[in-house]
Design a protein that fits this description.
700 residues, alpha+beta, Helix Hairpins, five-stranded mixed beta sheet, 12 strands, elongated
Length: 700
């Protein structure tokens, strides 16, 4: 074993247990010896201590289970982690107590390698598999698994009924085989007898778990060769001559349809076939070149499964060569993932977990990191761990700031991985505005429905999640309330309940809600026709000049500053060692500022109503677009131009109507007494139209 590599990987696994690190560590441990030395076990105990205080994820669970299959020393701490591992990698319905008991995960009389074999059987067990039970020499067909831990096994051929076999027996000894016409040759003794070599070959291809030669011999004795006497059977079993048809040598790359390639790949996988040759890679490339686009769309799931299963037997260069024709055909690889309908990406929520991981690895091998980040904004939650394992937090954040769009699945993934990824930048994306926009999407495909429901539940009921939203809003309670007012996916009762919970967390928000914002939120949506209209208390009026200036600033941020900052981040990252990289820190700070400013501008511009000052009619009332004269008690006179929310300029006496003084004088009539901020009293002495020069300046 490479001790230096082991030490480095162990440290990485302790602090950041990602999938790639754990796979490399497991590969190193596989070379540690038989049994794994006590000194290595002692060092692994440090890893168990680090992991023992939190729930394990899929990668950690797979590592522990993979380790159980090695000559590992047993112990109570490791057993406890194995129990957590099983729960991490199996769906909830397979984590019930009867099933855990049948696995023997907590039973120290069940050896670790026996436990690993039982788990392997459980993971492949499903209705319709062909089953052989050595202890009873019985063939059958797997049925359903009941709630008390028994498997219904139907007798082969339909005679003899069915029996409930304890799951403990099934997981301990059963041979599980994929059904198919070839299986009849193994079982039916009334047909012509196939050779022992063909029997072994079919078993090897069809078995979902390893089968010893002794067990295969017992299967033949109780199957196709059951009519032979002992002497004849021994001669048959030890003979290498073929008495029946030989196995096919057709390769998967020679398949003429997706279904045929799928079947041939399955056969090769059972035989543990090696890597693809250059000739085989070229064969796959020819097939994918000739594949019709409508076939690729119609059979997208099967195509994705095949692509995923090419990964373990291909180099990165072979993958690029073989799959290049699919880049314009495969619906799960659109040219711009963020620009297509979600239904095009639904395959990412339909494949089994192992194939999803492999498909993500293939995607990472042939596409740049930015493409994977685009996929992350669109794919269902089920595949996000696999996709994001190959994408940095910085790239995900950069793309979101640029696109300003994601699904509820991506936001939920950030929340679920907030401790593992430990990214303050990604957590900034968990704000009430993004959550509200994500939950406002409707008519989503089925694969995205689960995350929508879970994110909605977090918003309404989870205090930690609500605290995060308030923290992300800082002290901008007006923005927070405006987002809630636009949250029409919540009923009035749900909004009221949510406001009560949020008010308990934030005194600032509570005061704002009690001052009238709460009532506006509760009334939102009543009689509303235009559900796409931006939410807010009322429009912000401003001049044409200021409106154009804000539009120009937003355009520069999106098209100039953010791309420049992205390049600066790439250059800074290339310098390495982020702990002492001032350029990287400065670029990140700049990125965060641009993100915040873009959000502010987009929010404000959605509520701005630009005014043409020349069309403003001025009489004796102070309105936006008028000049006002204030006369104080001590005789002092001040003249202001009362203008829009973004037109303020104190040096020129341009008074924005949203300021405290602007609000004090707005809509007051000539002769009215006014108390201005600071307690001074004055009279609105005169109201006049703006000068021609100021109108010309603002109406551009």
């Amino acid at each position: 074993m490479d001790s230096a590599a082991f030490e480095d990987l162990l440290v990485s696994a302790t602090t950041s247990p990602d999938k790639k690190t754990l796979e490399k560590l497991l590969a190193v441990l596989a070379t540690a010896g038989n049994p794994i030395p006590a000194s290595v076990i002692e060092e692994l105990n440090l890893l168990w201590e680090a992991w023992g205080s939190e729930e394990l994820d899929d990668a950690q669970g797979a590592f522990c289970i993979g380790l159980a299959a090695l000559p590992m020393t047993d112990g109570p701490v490791f057993r406890k982690l194995l129990a957590q591992s099983v729960k991490a990698i199996l769906p909830n319905y397979l984590s019930r107590p009867p099933i855990m008991k049948a696995l023997g995960v907590r039973d120290e009389t069940v050896a670790l390698n026996d436990f690993a074999a039982r788990l392997q059987r459980l993971r492949v067990l499903k209705n319709g598999l062909i089953v052989f039970l050595p202890s009873s020499s019985r063939w059958g067909i797997a049925g359903s698994l009941d709630s008390i831990g028994s498997l219904a096994v139907n007798t082969w051929g339909g005679s003899g009924g069915s029996a409930a076999i304890p799951l403990d027996i099934v997981l301990r000894e059963a041979v599980l085989l994929t059904p198919g016409p070839e299986l009849i040759k193994l079982i039916d003794g009334t047909r012509s007898l196939i050779s022992a070599a063909d029997f072994r070959s079919i078993v090897k291809r069809k078995a979902l778990v390893p089968v010893s030669d002794d067990t295969a011999k017992q299967m033949a004795q109780n199957g196709c060769a059951k009519n032979l006497d002992r002497a004849a059977f021994e001669k048959y079993w030890t003979s290498s001559a073929a008495t029946g048809s030989s196995s096919s040598t057709r390769r998967s790359c020679d398949g003429r349809s997706l279904k045929e390639i799928d079947l041939l790949l399955s056969s090769e996988e059972k035989e543990n076939a090696g890597g693809f040759s250059a000739e085989e890679a070229a064969g796959f490339q020819r097939f994918f070149s000739n594949l019709k686009p409508d076939t690729a769309i119609r059979e997208a799931k099967l195509l994705a499964s095949i692509v995923a299963r090419l990964y373990p037997r291909s180099t990165a260069e072979q993958l690029k060569e073989m799959l290049s024709p699919l880049l314009a055909k495969a619906p799960f690889w659109p040219a711009r993932p963020t620009a297509v309908e979600l239904a095009r990406m639904s395959v990412w929520g339909e494949l089994p977990a192992k194939e999803l991981e492999q498909l993500a690895q293939v995607t990472a091998a042939i596409f740049p990191e930015e493409y994977l980040a685009e996929c992350a904004m669109r794919v269902p939650l089920k595949s996000l761990n696999a996709i994001c394992a190959n994408v940095s937090d910085e790239t995900l954040y950069d793309l979101f700031i640029e696109q300003k769009f994601c699904t509820a699945d991506f936001l939920l993934w950030i929340w679920k991985n907030r401790k593992k990824r430990d990214s303050a930048e990604l957590l900034q994306l968990l704000n009430v505005d993004n959550v509200s926009r994500a939950l406002s999407q409707d008519n989503l495909p089925k694969a995205w429905g689960t995350a929508m429901r879970e994110l909605r539940t977090l918003l309404i009921n989870n205090a930690d999640f609500q605290q995060q939203l308030i923290h992300a809003a800082a002290e901008d309670v007006m923005m927070f309330a405006a987002a809630l007012q636009g949250a029409l996916f919540l009923s009035s009762g749900e909004r009221q309940s949510l406001m009560v919970k949020l008010a308990r967390i934030s005194p600032l928000l509570r005061d704002h809600l009690e001052n009238g914002a709460g009532q506006r939120i509760l009334k939102a949506g009543i009689g509303k026709v235009d559900t796409d209209a931006p939410a807010g208390d009322e429009p912000n009026y401003t001049s044409l000049k200021s409106h154009k200036r804000l539009m120009k600033e937003l355009d520069d941020i999106i098209n100039v500053h953010i791309p420049e900052n992205r390049e600066a981040l790439k250059v800074a990252r290339a310098h390495g060692d982020f702990r002492e990289n001032s350029e990287f820190d400065a670029a990140k700070e700049r990125r965060n500022f641009l993100g915040r400013r873009r959000t502010e501008l987009e929010r404000e511009l959605s509520r701005i109503q630009p005014l043409n000052m020349r069309t403003i009619r001025v009489d004796d009332t102070a309105v936006i677009g008028s000049e006002i004269e204030l006369r104080y008690e001590d005789g002092e006179v001040e003249v202001y131009q009362l203008l829009g929310a973004w037109d303020g300029d104190p040096e020129r006496k341009f008074l924005a109507y949203r300021t405290r003084l602007g609000q004090a004088v707005l809509n007051r009539k000539t002769g009215d007494e006014i108390e201005v901020p600071g307690g001074r009293k004055c009279v609105l002495a005169a109201v006049r139209p703006l000068s021609e020069a100021i109108i010309a300046e603002l109406d551009v």
